[in-house]
Amino acid sequence: MARRCADPEPVTSGKPSGLRRSDRFLAGLKDVSRVTFVSHVQPDPDSLGSMLGLAHLVEHELGIPTRMSRDGLINRAENKEMVELLDLDLIPVDELEFQPGEVVVMVDSQPNTGRHTLCCDVLLYAVIDHHTTPGDLEGVPFVDVRPSLGATCTLVTRYLIEQEVPIPARVATALTYGIETEVSGFPREATEVDDGALQFLFPLADKNIVAQIRNARLPHHHFEVLLQALQSSFIYDRLIISWVNNLPQPEQAAEIVDFMVRFDKVDWALCGGVCGDKLVLSLRTSLHGVQAGDLLRRVVGKLGKAGGHDRRAGGCIPLTSTTVSAVEDLQAELRRRFLKALLNEDCRGQRLVPLREMLQNLQ
Ligand SMILES: [Mn+2]
């Protein structure tokens, strides 16, 4: 049985007193025919865990059927492993057909932030998220957005605890890994509530499966992308910028910056990778108290879309042309904007790996 924990968060003022958020969430779903969960493009473990946790809550408490979806592909090795090992049934968002009385619940993202391809003629009942990126929430009956939390899975775990719903190992494992991936950086973007959720879930989760997901086997192109990034990286004072001309999977930009931000000579890591007809951006910082999401949004401006958290951010710029010169022009413009925002425009870059010297040393 699920244990009951004291809820440290007060009920939002102005709402019916005595009703917890999970009560209100469930109350609005009583008469629906089905609930479909959606998330952002290339759903990550926090999205997947949140959908699975809420689907379990709705099915257990209301006996209403649910569906989970995926927007775009899931490419990252760890995330694919999670889907496979936990047997997650995800319907591609563009294949969804809605029945009368069906509603949609969006997790780990907000409407009109450029992060989904979901069509707009569906009834969006709820948005449950922890991103600072402001979305279009007007007219959404139920909104629970808590940017202070490290993970949306934490919020979902709170709902399950509030409703005293027994959590099966499969659901606990997904929620655990969802929170773990969101709070694993340093400085940690985690609160006591995130740690409380992890503590609660730990005995319930399958630790072997978590370890297997965390250590998923990596495909060949993972190493090719890493080499491209290492060869193209330039250091500008405390910022490192890496360009990848052929990024097979959009999630790899994040993997590059997670790796680069650990370099002891930098506080900021940016990666831009050409993925199809888009330039995918990922930003990390090791600094406290800076808003990486806001910074990336300002730098990208009208060129594309961006957003994120305090230390982690991502974005995307549609390419009007994928010729080398067009991509180089865009890279130069982004570099200029970043240097202006963080350092000074005249800062000269230094190669991370001076390749010619390195090859000479090998001879
Ligand atoms: Mn998240």
Outline the secondary-structure elements.
Blueprint lengths: L20 H7 L6 E5 L6 H18 L3 E5 L6 H9 L4 E3 L9 E6 L16 E6 L12 E4 L6 H11 L6 H15 L8 H10 L5 H8 L5 H13 L1 E3 L2 E6 L7 H9 L7 E8 L2 E8 L6 H9 L4 E4 L3 E7 L5 H19 L7 E2 L3 H8 L1
Parallel strand pairs: 1-2, 1-4, 2-3, 4-5, 5-6, 8-9
Antiparallel strand pairs: 7-8, 7-13, 9-10, 10-12, 11-12
Helix pairs in contact: 2-4, 2-5, 3-7, 4-5, 4-6, 5-6, 5-7
What's the overall geometry?
globular
Going by CATH, the homologous superfamily of the largest domain would be: inorganic pyrophosphatase (n-terminal core)
| Major β-sheet profile | 7 strands, mixed
Helix fraction by DSSP (H/I, runs of at least 4): 25-40%
State the main characteristics.
12 helices; 7-stranded mixed sheet; disordered N terminus; inorganic pyrophosphatase (n-terminal core); 37% helix; alpha/beta; Diaminopimelate Epimerase, Chain A, domain 1; 2 domains; 6-stranded parallel sheet; 363 residues
